[in-house]
Amino acid sequence: MWLCIGIKVKSIETNDQMIKKNHIHNKNILTVFIHIGFWCLVFLWPLLSLDEISNTQYIINRNWLSTCSLLIVFYINYFLLVDQYFFKNKKTLFYIINFLLIIILFFLIKSFLELNLFNPTENGIRLREVRSGTTSSLQLILPMILSVGMCAGLKINKKWINDQLVLQDVKQAQLNSEIKYLRYQIQPHFLFNTLNNVYSLIDSSPKIAKTSIHSLGKMMRYLLHDTATNKVPLVKEIDFLEHYIDLMQLRVSSNLRVEKSFPIINQPIQIAPLLLISFIENAFKHGIDAVQPSHIKVELTIENHNTIHYSVINSSFPQIENVTDSGIGLENLKKRLELLYPSKFELITEEKDNLYIAKLILNFKE
Prior knowledge:
This protein is rod-shaped. The longest helix has 71 residues, at 134-204. It has two domains: 21-120 and 129-169, no CATH class; 205-363, Heat Shock Protein 90, CATH 3.30.565. The chain has a five-stranded mixed β-sheet with strand order 4-6-7-9-8, covered by helices on one side. The protein has a two-stranded antiparallel ribbon with strand order 1-2. Helix 2 (56-86) packs antiparallel against helix 3 (91-114), helix 2 (56-86) crosses helix 4 (134-204) and helix 3 (91-114) crosses helix 4 (134-204). The chain contains eight helices and nine strands. The protein is an alpha+beta fold. 19% of the residues are buried.
């Protein structure tokens, strides 16, 4: 049985990993297309600014050489320098390498622009002279510096997003682990209480004890199989509660009166498993006296198709036992509600007029 559950959990984890890998793969492909599209626009832009055909060679040469330098600076930083130096606290070396890279590319561009191959000529005479001076140099250098800054900014933003996703995954993993721990904590607690009740029947009522064990087997199947998921149908949770109440009634004295009211569910309502059992466990544990008349009233209603109103009212015998000491059950319930339904629930427990009242108002909509 446990092997099957383990295989099921492993299969779910494998599917999640495959979905995540596919998402990353698709995201990487999209990034590649964005980069290609951006640089295509940058290289085509000079053609859109042509005013004379005679200027074509000069404008293309001038702009495309400069654009190539931007592309080289950008991707050397994108694939190497930012990761290897900037993010590893080697910023001084990062700036020195970029300074040398920009200077080298600057002089290479200036050399290329001096060649006749890169200048329009007519009868061996250049139609345009290559501009020189401080302004021309700054027009070549500043875009490369901006390219370094743009690349660093993109990488920093990407790293921050990845760090946030990793942090979110870590928090989600911790949250899931805590929820699983609390959920699995309920099972041995529930089993321990129920086995005590069955044990007390073995000598006095062996037939009833056999019936109890059979009912307990059905309930354990629900605990082991259905509750392994994050959500269960409310119908099954109510069925589990009714089985538990019937099981508990087998061993109690005749002076106990139990009232229960559950709605007929005609909609696919799902909630986290084992949220509702704690109230009833607490009532049977603290609300019954061997001599005095006792009663337990369980009521569940659904309001506006999205809110559960659940209450358990039981007799209280404070002179025998402090009923506010609800043990692991109600504390566990409160922690799970805070994790699973933050700001979507109201949990009320109070004692008055020899009654112990436990109420839960839960908005189960996502």
